[in-house]
Task: inverse folding
């Protein structure tokens, strides 16, 4: 059978992979386990401004910070939503207020990883996903994979997938299955699949990855193509990948995650981008917050009440942002930030915070929100409550060097 001009490079380009991107790494990962509770971890890439998302309007110093006076104002039809008389929720997340009232939404404020001062997205995200103490000691595996390694009998659904975006969080010795919404295989007919499969045959690794991507795409919707040429195959896959990238892909991720979690999967992890708001933050933050809100509500709707009641969702970011806004109406890389938690298993309707204050003398380096607790501690207590992991195991094997501190009682 002739190649018909269909090369692996062109195939991967049609899936949206850059020449430098590995075709076997994807932004959504799953693992199955013997327990019944579920955990979803969302990495918010770019450094979310926690002071804007959950606003400490009850701290008199908040309104005094450059650029924060408007954020501190309460009232108005489209203003922030009061949470507890001290903190208020960004208007773009007002759709999550019913979850707050139901005790299925909560926040941990003034938190961070141990990362300090260098303010690199890459190092910050690596440290967050590895669960390490410092950059020089970043582990080769992620803390969620080490969680899986702590349980006998856990298994991923499959070993590889076609797609984009590495997640150190889930890398390691424990098997994990991967999937990406922009793989672009939906709508590919049997003949098109055979054509692509033939092109992969010379490389067993690529052939296995393509076979899994095809299996994961089953049941998807799209144009059926009969008698397609290689150019038509490329065009169809490119169109699907482009549509996923333009919008709605975050909902597709949440729907797919919910479907897997309703079955045998117990852990899901993925990323949401767009949190690096150096300019015009008042507008720039709205879109990623809308996506985050969509993801949470989609997970709740698609999981169903029974599974949602056994689920905890936690969203975390590599670092917070500066307490004062900059001259462009944005905020620069900072330190203390915010975790967003939701789920029917959560003991929510609260903001967990050992609040440090926003007077300049109380800021970290006189510029950032002072972190008062480690994000790893909250993650550790979630794992302890959901999966029954021993505290000493969490502090030594999953998050080496962590002191979890007192139990914040995150779960109902």
Result:
């Amino acid at each position: 059978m002739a190649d018909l001009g269909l090369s692996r490079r062109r195939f991967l380009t049609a899936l949206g992979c850059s020449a430098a991107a590995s075709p076997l790494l994807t932004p959504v990962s799953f693992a199955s386990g013997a327990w019944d509770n579920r955990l979803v971890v969302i990495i918010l890439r770019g450094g979310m401004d926690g002071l804007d998302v959950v606003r400490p309007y009850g701290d008199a110093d908040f309104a005094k910070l450059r650029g924060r006076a408007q954020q501190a104002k309460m009232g108005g039809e489209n203003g922030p939503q009061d949470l507890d008389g001290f903190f208020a929720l960004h208007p773009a997340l007002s759709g999550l207020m019913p979850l707050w009232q139901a005790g299925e939404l909560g926040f941990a404020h003034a938190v961070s990883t141990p990362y300090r001062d260098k303010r690199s997205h890459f190092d910050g995200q690596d440290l967050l996903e590895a669960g390490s103490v410092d950059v020089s000691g970043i582990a080769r595996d992620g803390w969620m994979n080490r969680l899986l390694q702590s349980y006998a009998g856990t298994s991923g659904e499959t070993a590889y997938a076609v797609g984009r975006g590495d997640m150190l969080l889930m890398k390691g010795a424990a098997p994990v299955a991967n999937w990406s919404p922009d793989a672009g295989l939906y709508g590919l007919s049997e003949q098109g699949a055979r054509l692509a499969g033939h092109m992969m045959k010379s490389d067993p690794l690529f052939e296995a990855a393509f076979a899994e991507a095809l299996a994961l795409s089953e049941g998807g919707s799209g144009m059926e193509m009969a008698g397609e040429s290689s150019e038509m195959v490329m065009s169809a896959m490119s169109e699907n990948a482009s549509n996923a990238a333009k919008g709605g892909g975050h909902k597709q991720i949440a729907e797919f995650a919910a479907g897997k979690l309703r079955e045998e999967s117990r852990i899901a992890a993925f990323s949401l981008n767009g949190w690096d708001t150096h300019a015009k933050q008042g507008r720039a933050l709205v879109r990623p917050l809308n996506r985050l809100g969509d993801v949470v509500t989609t997970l709740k709707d698609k999981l169903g009440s029974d599974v949602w009641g056994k689920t905890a969702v936690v969203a975390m970011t590599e670092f917070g942002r500066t307490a004062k806004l900059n001259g462009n109406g944005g905020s620069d890389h900072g330190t203390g930030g915010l975790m967003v938690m939701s789920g029917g298993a959560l003991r929510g309707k609260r903001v967990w915070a050992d609040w440090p204050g926003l007077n300049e003398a109380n800021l970290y380096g006189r510029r950032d929100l002072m972190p008062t607790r480690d994000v790893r501690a909250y993650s550790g207590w979630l794992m302890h409550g959901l999966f029954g992991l021993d505290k000493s195991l969490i502090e030594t094997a999953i998050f080496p060097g962590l002191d979890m501190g007192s139990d914040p009682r995150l779960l109902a």
About this structure: The chain has 13 helices and twelve strands. The chain has one domain: 8-398. The mean pLDDT is 81. Residues 131 and 399 are 6 Å apart (CA to CA).
